[in-house]
Amino acid sequence: MAGYLVAQAVSAATAAAPASGGSAAGAAADAVSAASSLPRSAFGLVLDRAEYGIMVPLVYAALAFLLAALAARLVRILRAPGPPYQLAIYPAPRLPLLAAMRDAFGMPQVLRRAPLFWAFLMMYHVGILALLLGHLDLFPAIRIVPVGSRHMLGAGVAGLMVTISTFYFLGRRFMGETRKISTPGDYFLLLLLLFLFLFGDLMSWGNSWTASGFVMTKKDFAGYFAILAKLSFADPRTVLHGPHYHFIVIHVLLAELFFVVLPFTKVMHAFLALPVEALRRRTWARRSPPANARLAWKKP
Fold it and tell me: In this structure, which topology does domain 40-279 adopt according to CATH?
């Protein structure tokens, strides 16, 4: 109820300020301050605590689980016995690492077989790279976009790229041969990613399309990341203001769920694609068969 009253007060103050010759932003800020002083209901207090738990402690828990699960899986893969057959590709390229990077990131095999699928894959991966850089840019020690910029890196375009691509990937799962090999886990992962991106888009677009301009800028989001980086456990509401806070909470909750399920999904290829492609370009001596081994051969 208090959140609703805050939103109503901001809307009324924003609409009334131009008529009185005052500043809309200043009137809205005064309205937020006044409405925030209203007594909180029991449900509001419980919601505040739940949102704080999602925004701070659960972030650390999800990241710790992700790192531990990834490390355990990589150790299990490295300790597994090597294949008895040769994985190398012939003819061997002059620069194996560059060839591995070309196949891992350029996906020429997919391009030859399914050009449309390849186009959406490339758009998706470019968008993901921009989103990763944009979120890293929110940490205090990293400066890709100027501090005074209202937009994050990509200005909403990166989110649009991954959202459109995910819609295509999800629709593809319902068609042709892909439908026959799809599992419930595939649909769950794509839906999780889709809603994660959609709530990110809502924050990006809705945040810049309000009548009074930006509600939360890149600087505000950087303040939240600073809280996480410094392990201060401060309340994110001290730096994140405005009616879009609940969208941020849902976005962070979906991201935490993604971190938890990631080690058990096919998305693990993001961590293994380059090492596997590099491994395929290594040559080694085939293991000699045992001395007493005989090959049975009969004339046709």
Answer: Fumarate Reductase Cytochrome B subunit (1.20.950)
